[in-house]
Design goal:
It holds the Pfam family VGCC_alpha2. The chain has about 1250 residues and is α+β, with helices and mostly antiparallel strands. Helices cover about 30% and strands about 20% of the residues. The chain is built from 37 helices and 46 strands. Helix 12 links the parallel strand 14 (about 360-365) and strand 15. Helix 3 runs antiparallel to helix 29 (about 930-940) and helix 31 (about 1025-1035) runs antiparallel to helix 37. The protein is globular. The N terminus and C terminus are likely disordered.
Length: about 1250
């Protein structure tokens, strides 16, 4: 029976050292304070403590991780270190991405061709009724089928995010504001069914294809594969307002919106106007530019700082504009001359200065009447080069009873625009979308050009406007929880512990800017293409049939940017023509599981932080030049000094990086890769050829025996094209499957993927063949390199005693001489591990109190640490190697408080040095109990290590700490200090270490932060004006049947009542407070007294900038002896930091062969209080962020091509306006509700 393995890692001190310490050790007497102060801690003793602790840790780490044995094995097997060429890698990766994107475009063209051909043959068909698969009305087989629904076989498919789908059909999504019984809509739904054959054809030839769809100009969307449409709490989706549709349907545009806020625009007219403007803004994207002017007697920008300019229609700017619409008041008489002149002059300036979209231009006029024709203005600004007009003018007539329609309609028709009459809220969105058809006319008339459009990153079907609503629901849940807690136990609610808990929760909510579940938000880009009405007699109509598109998940793109090619701490990212990142390792689009307000317009300069001491948003010349080269799709390289954050923005570091960039041809994207200086230019090369190994009689499957190994779950070693036909329980099972196949006869290494479109693939007979369901692709180099690493690390899980020590040091010999039972009693190791550069992770468990063979410990380590080079301890170990090669990096979880099972993680990088190059091949490490380190730390520091030692860490007035290289506490006298920033505990000492240069400050700016602004909403039982407006906006913006029917069935009281602020249970909680009385017997006094404690401060998430000062140990402290100066003396505060009665309030000493610092604080010294924190705080600009960015440097962008904004035949089109259309009968109920809400104000 095998003995137990090593657990604790603190050896019994050597006998002669123990005796020496016993002789010199002396407890201080109980003298007065002045005497204790004049007995300073001996610096030499501190130095010896640090040396002893470091030596024991290093020896223990080498022993349990087999460091020396592993290095020897790699060197004996002739693993080489070769050059990693960034220039070649970026070109190769860009080529891979381009070929993948070409496949998507090829599939898209087939959809477009089929749609245009089918529409021609069906345009005369009269369809009054047709049964189709409505995505909202299908039910999975086996479930109860409600009336009006249909049953369909739906099977979960891993390729489509495990959503139940049917790959034989498509389904149709119809927005709630579209009537699918209209003949035109029904006809389009019917003929578009023929696209199913194209959808399935595309998927068979390119199994990597994601969702395919056709968005009709009538509003419905046909999507493949078929799925049941579920969007909670309400269905807000309309494909015509999505970026992939709008950008494909129209070229980029500059839009000036003129909103009449004269005295006649009151009541319902004012609300319709607001809703119309919001609907226009919803159709704009990052490639568009916009500004809004309100006019009555005077014409003013809606936002004063947007004066005389156009702003990019990012989510942040659009959000700013929408928010400013809420507070406007109507007054005076409208001056149309001034308003139109300002709009035309602004657009003319943009054309002359080549600013903005530099393609389409439009004025959107929202008013209740036009008193004149204003021909002189049009003559001066828009009719100089007829028939071409640089600006289109769209008019939106507001109100039921209007004096004159002809003038406002003529204004639109005479300027190649469109007129719409809006008399009810229900028709606003549908009517506003008419302008898209008009702006698409030049493309439709040209016919021969179908521009391919790529969107910025976005979150699938999630509407960004849901951010505020979802945040409100989170606050509602929090309010409900507080009321329930108060009702359950008032004393506990008021207790200090409960108040601390609530404060900590609030702090975490505002501090943690890196949290968020990306899984439920499927980030992607989409490629789309317009579909035209190609009928010969359609030239006088120029109909846009719709837009065809397909999604490209960001994860699919990342698979073509394999991290193993870039090495540890290297990464790749993609930048759009606007300078925004499509993908980047520091892109953080989600905050507390909610999309950030401006998640898809993060500039590359906001994530690539230069190492300069500048203020927020001040770009260096080097960064500007780098950015310009990237957005202009140049090919080149640049080296820059950068700073970066990691570990949830709790740590920061500096690093020199080499950037390589090149265009992804035929797209608006540029690929950039970043490699760290020095070690990033080299890589380890070692492969295990399978056929040769098999021929030599080696059993390669034996390299993967047991269950104590993992491979990187996101890396592709080998994979089937149709992964749904070959599903595996884990990445390890998939690897073993292909490893078994690789040993069989007939194995070959295929291409990594399909590199050419299906129409260009043919067999020897010239016939195009389908992709076989058993076809696969491999990364040959990665696969064989993984086998090599598996061979090198095969014995990692053997018993430690089976590997004789190569180290002759007494400590190493001592460890071997101890029995395993003795080791278990002396050491605190729970697991040792190794992770290689090829993604292989092995570990060896040392379970507590049980035999390893009997313990069910599988997954304890691997479930959290299976991503090799992506693990934090891996990346930190490699960086630490560049500072001190022979050292471990030690870290403890943040804020672990009083947990007794806290584990410390130690990691050490293994570098190979060959051919005058060095590169990391693996990282070894171990985890051990913090309690074991605490005990050993106390044991070492409680004894004098040199003569004349009066005080040690065992004394009551001495505080001793172990800090890591970023200033976080690993060991302290108080367990609750562990994981906390040292400045929060000993701010004065930390500040003096910074002043002395022991720690260096690194200021990090977070340009993706979310701050919380009060929305002015009280939590009273009577709804405030803002609450009522919030409800109004909800109904104005989204007339959705599910939501309506749910609430219409309730009373009006239920709709506007404070349940918006307090969901179910909130009203009862209020009633209890109101019914309670104080001792004086006055009802309601208790409510006033507890209101501040029970009611939360309602907030609204806002985009903001934050900054935080983080710290890193100065690398100059590291010397062979572990001291900072040439004489090897411990670092201490000098005389200029002298405090009363204290020449040395604290002493510090680097712990040898580690990233730790020993800090001894003399508590008898009257150390001043100094507050420090690493909590980010908002950067104050004394104005909104949107205004500050506009006042600063406006970053350049590259305009998209082609620009199709006019066609000579467009003048033949007579259709340029439409009156209001009939709406559903239940819209009257909505209007009655809205009027009641307005009346309550």
């Amino acid at each position: 029976m095998e003995e137990e393995e090593t657990r604790r890692c603190w050896p019994v001190p050597r006998m002669h050292l123990l005796l020496l310490l016993l002789l010199v050790f002396a407890q201080p007497g109980n003298g007065d304070e002045d005497k204790q102060v004049h007995d300073p801690i001996n610096p030499q003793s501190v130095q010896q403590w640090a040396k002893t602790l470091g030596m024991e840790l290093w020896t223990c780490g080498k022993y349990v991780t087999r460091r020396d044995d592993l290095l020897e094995r790699y060197n004996k097997q002739h693993a080489n270190v070769i050059e990693r060429s960034g220039s070649n890698i970026v070109l190769e990766m860009a080529k891979e991405v381009k070929e993948m994107m070409d496949l998507k475009i090829s599939a898209l063209k087939r959809i477009m061709d089929a749609a245009e051909a089918t529409a021609i043959s069906s345009h005369d068909e009269l369809v009054l009724e047709h049964e189709y698969w409505n995505a909202k009305l299908i039910v999975p087989q086996g479930e109860e089928v409600p009336e009006g629904s249909r049953e369909m076989v739906l099977t979960p498919n891993s390729h489509f995010y495990n959503i139940p789908v049917n790959t034989s059909f498509s389904t149709v999504h119809v927005p709630t504001n579209v009537f699918d019984g209209a003949p035109d809509v029904m006809r389009a739904i019917k003929w578009s069914e023929n696209l199913d054959s194209i959808f399935t054809y595309n998927y068979k030839f390119d199994p990597s294809l994601s969702w395919q769809y056709f968005g009709s100009s009538f509003g419905f969307m046909r999507q493949y594969p078929a799925l049941q449409w579920k969007q909670e709490p309400v269905d807000l989706y309309d494909c015509r307002t999505r970026g992939w549709y709008i950008e494909a349907a129209t070229s980029a545009k500059d839009v000036v919106i003129l909103v009449d806020f004269s005295g006649s625009m009151t009541g319902m007219r004012k609300e319709i106007a607001r809703h119309a403007v919001n609907s226009i803004l919803d159709t704009l994207s990052n490639n568009d530019f916009v500004n809004i002017f309100t006019f009555s007697e005077e014409t003013q920008e809606l936002i004063p700082c947007f004066r005389d300019t156009l702003v990019q229609a990012t989510l942040a700017n659009v959000r700013e504009l929408k928010g400013s619409l809420e507070e406007l008041e109507t007054k005076d008489i409208a001056n149309f001359t001034t308003a139109l002149t300002r709009a035309f002059e602004l657009l003319q300036w943009a054309r002359e200065e080549r600013y903005g979209a530099m393609c389409n231009q439009a004025i959107m006029l929202v008013t209740d009447e036009v008193p004149a024709l204003y021909e002189e203005i049009f003559q001066e600004y828009n009719w100089k080069e007829l028939p071409n007009m640089p600006v289109r003018l769209f008019t939106y007539l507001i109100g039921r009873e209007v004096p004159d329609v002809e003038r406002i309609k003529w204004v639109a028709c005479a300027n190649q625009g469109y007129y719409v009459h809006l008399s009810t809220l229900a028709e606003v969105r549908e009517s506003v979308l008419n302008y898209v058809q008009v702006m698409a006319r030049p493309m439709v008339l040209k016919r021969t050009v179908h521009p391919v459009t790529w969107t910025p990153v976005y979150a699938d079907v999630t509407d960004p406007k849901m951010t505020d609503w979802l945040w409100e629901m989170k606050e509602c849940a929090e309010q409900k929880e507080r009321f329930e807690s108060y009702r359950k136990d008032k004393e506990k609610f008021d207790s200090k512990e409960e108040q601390d808990r609530r404060f900590a929760k609030k702090l975490r909510r505002t501090q943690d800017q890196t949290s968020g579940d990306l899984i439920k938000y499927q980030l992607m880009t989409s490629v789309s293409m317009p579909v035209f009405d190609m009928r010969d007699n359609a030239t006088r109509v120029a109909n846009l049939l719709g837009v065809a598109g397909t999604d490209v998940p960001i994860q699919d793109i990342l698979k073509l940017l394999p991290p193993h090619m870039l090495g540890v701490n290297g990464y790749a990212f993609i930048v759009t023509n606007n300078g925004f990142v499509l993908t980047h390792p520091d892109l953080r689009p989600v905050f507390q599981d909610i999309l950030k307000p401006s998640y898809n317009s993060v500039d590359m300069s906001e994530v690539e932080l230069m190492d300069t001491e500048t203020e927020a948003r001040e770009l260096s010349d080097a960064m500007k030049a780098f950015r310009d080269a990237v957005i202009n799709q140049s090919t080149g390289t640049v080296t820059l000094d950068t700073r970066y954050h990691f570990d949830g923005m709790r740590r920061a570091s500096r690093i020199r990086r080499h950037y390589y960039y090149t265009a992804i041809a035929t797209t608006p994207f540029t690929l950039v890769i970043s490699l760290p200086d020095k070690y990033g230019a080299s890589k380890v090369h070692g492969v295990e050829e399978i056929r040769r190994s098999v021929a030599e009689g080696q059993h390669i499957m034996s390299y993967f025996k047991g269950k104590d190994w993992r491979v990187h779950p996101d890396w592709i070693y080998c994979k089937y094209h149709y992964d749904t036909e070959h599903e595996f329980d884990s990445a390890e099972h998939e690897l073993l499957h292909f490893l078994d196949r690789a040993q069989r006869p007939g194995w070959h290494w295929p291409l990594r993927k399909l590199s050419t479109p299906p129409e260009h693939q043919s067999d020897a007979n010239g016939k195009t063949g389908k992709v076989d369901k058993d076809s696969y692709y491999c990364d040959r180099n990665l696969f064989l390199s993984l086998l090599f690493d598996a061979k090198m690390t095969e014995g990692f899980s053997k018993n430690l005693s089976e590997s004789p020590p190569t180290d002759s040091e007494p400590m190493a010999m001592f460890m071997v001489l101890l029995t395993r039972k003795g080791l278990k009693e002396q050491f605190g190791v729970t697991v040792s591990f190794i992770a290689t550069h090829t993604g292989l992770t092995r570990w060896h468990d040392f379970p507590l109190g049980v035999d390893p063979d009997d313990a069910n410990v599988e997954g304890q380590f691997s479930s959290h640490h299976n991503k090799a080079t992506d693990e934090l301890w891996y990346r930190r170990a490699v960086e630490q190697h560049m500072v001190q090669p022979d050292s471990f990096v030690y870290s403890v979880p943040h804020e672990v408080s009083h947990r007794n099972d806290t584990l410390i993680t130690a990691s050490h990088a293994l570098f190979l040095n060959k051919n005058e190059r060095r590169a990391p091949v693996a990282v070894v490490g171990f985890q051990f109990l913090q309690s074991a380190l605490f005990n050993r730390f106390q044991n070492i520091t409680s004894k004098c290590a040199v003569p004349n030692c009066k005080r040690t860490c065992a004394h009551q007035n001495v505080s001793c700490y172990l800090l890591d290289n970023h200033g976080y506490v690993i060991i302290s006298d108080e367990l609750q200090d562990s994981g906390h920033f040292f400045g929060e505990i000993q701010g004065y000492v930390m500040q003096k270490m910074i002043d002395e240069g022991i720690y260096q400050r690194i200021r990090i700016f977070d340009y993706q932060a979310v701050c919380f602004k009060g929305d002015g909403v009280t939590s009273d039982a009577t709804p405030s004006r803002m609450q009522k407006h919030h409800i109004l906006s909800w109904f104005f913006d989204w007339i959705v049947s599910k939501f309506l029917f749910l609430y219409v069935q309730t009373s009006l009281q239920d709709i506007w009542h404070s349940s918006w602020a307090h969901p179910s249970g909130g009203e009862e909680a209020y009633e209890e407070i109101y019914e309670d009385t104080t001792e004086s017997g006055k009802p309601g006094d208790r409510h006033k007294r507890t209101e501040g404690k029970v009611l939360i401060n309602r907030t609204r998430p806002q985009t903001c900038d934050q900054q935080v000062d983080l710290y890193q140990l100065n690398t100059r402290l590291r010397s062979p002896r572990g001291s900072s100066d040439k004489k090897g003396k411990p670092i201490t505060n000098n005389q200029k930091y002298e405090i009363k009665h204290c020449t040395r309030p604290f002493l510090i000493e680097p712990v040898e062969t580690s990233n730790m610092l020993l800090v001894i604080v003399d508590s008898l010294c009257e150390i001043p209080f100094h507050e420090m924190t690493v909590i980010p705080n908002e950067v104050s600009y004394n104005e909104s962020l949107a205004c500050h960015r506009l006042r600063g440097n406006i970053l350049p962008r590259k305009t998209l091509s082609p620009c199709i904004n006019h066609h000579p035949k467009e003048k033949e089109i007579e259709l340029c306006g439409r009156a209001n259309r009939p709406i559903h009968a239940w819209s009257g109920l909505i209007v009655a509700l809205l009027f009641w809400l307005l009346a309550t104000e």
